[in-house]
Write a structure and sequence with these properties.
Layout (H helix, E strand, L loop, with lengths): L3 H11 L6 E2 H12 L4 E3 L5 E3 L1 H10 L3 E4 L4 E4 L12
Antiparallel strand pairs: 1-5, 2-3, 4-5
Helix pairs in contact: 1-3
Amino acid sequence: MPTNREVAEWMATQVPRHYILYQEWLVGRIQRRFGKEHVYVNAGGGLSISRGVLREFRKLTPDLIWDRSEKGWRKRYSHERSGRLAD
């Protein structure tokens, strides 16, 4: 079974290919490629990426931020302050 780190490394390889890494797009691919143990059903009934994978992904991608309005990760713009969330 793939580790959380391996899944996060795969996610990181997708960054150069996409302007925004949409969670909805990633979660389906993670489930198919790595198995259901790396996703879970959230309180709203939708699939989400496991917390363990997300912890590893954060370590690998300090230059990315979570864009709440887009529900995905993207590179930080030069005018944005530090932190992991976009305003």
